[in-house]
Please model this.
Amino acid sequence: MSLHPDIAPLVFLIGTWNGEGRGEYPTIADFTYGEEIKIAAPPNKPFLTYTQRTWRTGDHPEAGAPLHTETGYFRAAGPDRAEAVIAMPTGVVEVHAGKIGGTSVRLETTTVAATPTAKEVRSVERSLVVDGEELRYELWMAAVGQANQIHLTATLRRQGG
Amino acid sequence: MSLHPDIAPLVFLIGTWNGEGRGEYPTIADFTYGEEIKIAAPPNKPFLTYTQRTWRTGDHPEAGAPLHTETGYFRAAGPDRAEAVIAMPTGVVEVHAGKIGGTSVRLETTTVAATPTAKEVRSVERSLVVDGEELRYELWMAAVGQANQIHLTATLRRQGG
Model:
């Protein structure tokens, strides 16, 4: 594989990651989910591709059924600055800028925009921390009239790792 | 396949489409490209997934090399209204709203947003017309200080069609 030099600061994110997460928000019941994240580096391109999908877990009657999915790209802007663009089938897009530190990245939305029928999302913060073969993330969100607060926490393991 | 009823107005877009396109803009030399568009309906979900990739064609020394790619989702908001969200590895996101008419859809950006290192894009219009086994699209763009004008035109055929 020919890794584009611009993407080197984010190479620790590359992999197929599987695991479980937990969701909470004032407007909904707590829930758990299974998740797969795929982050890949196309040869000689200055970005990473990002796709994600989740499914129901536990003793829910629809266990295994798809929940959320999203797709987008990560970019590095120098050794310690990250950017991301993410599109969601709910009609929301996120534009992120943030910091890379070691094998972690912390992103905040500079813009959240949505189609006419989408729910209101005002801001999203995402942190991703890679620790050996483990990826942990948190997602904080200000949406549907609520203050910025934790929405998702997950711990995934690198497939084949 | 269990098609979600909300997405029925856009079912004509579903397929894997292959063909060639032509690019032009005042700031660049005209170019041609090969393209594959995949539009799919996940079972029982009210959206279509959209991914696209292009590559160099003709007698260019790097013929076959990847050019652009983008990813996102289409949604219908009733029988004649469409929405789309698209993320690009250049750090740009597009949020579209528009009209469905027969087997065509005409979208205009309600928001274009970008990461700090991305080029300036002010607006994008996309039309997609399906005519039997053929999909034609145009993309108009106002970017990098230029007025809204044609940027891309392509004619694709449904794979297996």
